[in-house]
Structure formats: C-alpha cells, structure tokens
Design brief:
about 280 residues; alpha+beta; Cyclophilin; 2 domains; elongated
Length: about 280
C-alpha cells in the first residue's frame, strides 16, 4: 500500500513535471516568435533535404500566445527534493580562447539614430578584440553609410565592449552573431539593442560569402546593434545589410565554429565563451 508520504511525493513530482512542461512550451513559443538573424537567428530544415535555409520574420499564432501566457502565469513552486533535474551544459576549453576581460556591457540607450558624422567616401576599419583573437573588418561606408555610421558611433561609445557573441550556427547557415548587450545565457536568441532602429542598405544583389559582415534584423528597417560574421559561404535572402568584409581573423571565427555549440546543436551558444573585450572603429 502506498503511504501518505509516498503519495504526497508522487503528487508533488507530477505537479512539478506539469510545470516543467508548461515552461518548455513557453520557451518553444518564444523561440518560434524569434526572427532569423534578428533578435535571433532562426533556421528551418528543408523536408527530406537536410539543408538549412534562412526564413524571414515569423510569428506564432494566437494559441501559442495563450499557451505562453498561461505558462508565465503559473505560480513558481519549490522543486521537490527527490526530483532529479537535468544538468546544465558545461563549457569545454577551446584552444586559443582566454578568459574574457573584466567588465560588463554599459547597455546605453538612445532615442534616435545618431547624426551622420562619417565621411561616406572614406575608408574605415573596425577591430574586434575578442578573448579568442582579433578580427579586423574593412567597413563599406560608400554602400552602407548609415550602418557604418551607427557602428562607428556605438563602438565609440564602448557599447559593444564586454558583450558576448551569443549565437553560432554550424549547418547550412554559417555565422557568429554578436552585438547584444543583454544576450541571455538561457536562450541563444538575442533581443537587445541601442534603443533606435534604422533602415536597410546595400541589399540589391546582396550575397553572403565567407568574410561578410552584415546586420541582423527582425524585419525590414529594424537594424540596431546586432550583427553577424560569416565564416563560411552562406546562402541567405538579400534581407540583411552587408556593411563590411573581414580582412583579418577569419581563422579565429573558424576556430570558434569548429568547437561547436554549448548545446551540441547546429544552432546555439558558442562552446567558446566568445566576448568582445573591446570594439574600435578608425578612419583609414
């Protein structure tokens, strides 16, 4: 016969499992509302082909919203002591990557796109000093003046300093996504930005070969601070403003990609805890 204590524990366990199912459903709904390479980079598997292609922005239906609201409204209960929780993924050392520099993102916010201060006819170089190595980028001010102006402004405000590159994709789409000061350690999708948005540029005939640097977005005209670095030729619709080419450090990105993701999936956090120790932009 089941004792009252055993019955109590069984009921507690069942209640906990129901709460976990609701939380998983809520997280899945939020992920479905994320955008490709925007606030997050989503990928869709082609039926039968196994290839991964980019999608445009997409949203969940009303049922998803109701399920998410119900899950978020559920009260939090203590986890029964006899319920085993799955262990969190553990980072493994990645050769060439050191501990990030001490510091935290400043998370500054602005109400409007910065005024144009760059010379659209000039040459500009951005330097990403990461804990895994240095990456240099030739910025294309002529074809993407507003994008380069915003990037130069944000780097001058130390906005990117101490931010993590929060997403890595390793199948079909080969990019490392960075630029979100609020990037979460729970989900690989980033949602943060500088408070302003600006229009797309340089999309006509845009392609994304290895070495491309382009803006992430959540739909037309929603550029902010998030950008992605292409470390292997990638097929994407021309929806993401290309604004630079990597001139040094492509091997750094390829090393990061070779280490895979923390979750062991083709889309997740980099196994390497990639952090932008500092980002600078200089003319020339």
């Amino acid at each position: 016969m089941v004792s009252s204590e055993q019955r109590r524990r069984q009921l507690a366990r069942e209640k906990y499992e129901r709460q976990m199912e609701r939380r998983v459903a809520a997280q899945a709904a939020r992920r479905r509302r994320n955008t490709i390479l925007g606030a997050s980079l989503a990928v869709v598997v082609l039926a039968g082909g196994g290839a991964l292609i980019g999608t445009g922005a997409f949203s969940s239906d009303d049922k998803d919203k109701k399920d998410t609201a119900a899950a978020q409204a559920a009260p939090t209960q203590p986890v029964p002591s006899d319920v085993t929780q799955p262990p969190a993924p553990t980072r493994k050392p990645v050769e060439g990557c050191a501990d990030p520099a001490a510091g935290a993102p400043n998370k500054k916010q602005w109400q409007a796109e910065p005024a144009m201060t760059i010379d659209a006819g000039g040459a500009y170089t951005a330097t990403l000093d990461t804990n895994c190595g240095k990456v240099t980028i030739a910025l294309d001010a002529a074809k993407a003046p507003h994008t380069v102006n915003s990037f130069a402004f944000l780097s001058g405000e130390q906005y990117f300093d101490h931010t993590k590159c929060h997403r890595l994709t390793t199948a079909g789409i080969f990019v490392l996504q960075c630029g979100d000061p609020t990037a979460s350690a729970i989900l690989p999708g980033g949602t943060g930005g500088p408070g302003y948005k600006f229009a797309d540029e340089n999309l006509t005939g845009a392609t994304y070969p290895a070495g491309t640097v382009a803006m992430a977005n959540s739909g037309p005209g929603t550029n902010g601070s998030q950008f992605f670095l292409v470390y292997k030729d990638t097929q994407l619709d021309p929806k993401y403003t290309p604004f630079g080419k990597i001139t040094g450090g492509l091997d750094v990105l390829q090393k990061i990609a070779a280490a895979g993701t923390l979750e062991g999936r083709p889309d997740g956090h980099p196994m390497a805890d990639v952090t932008l120790n500092s980002v600078t932009t200089a003319k020339g």
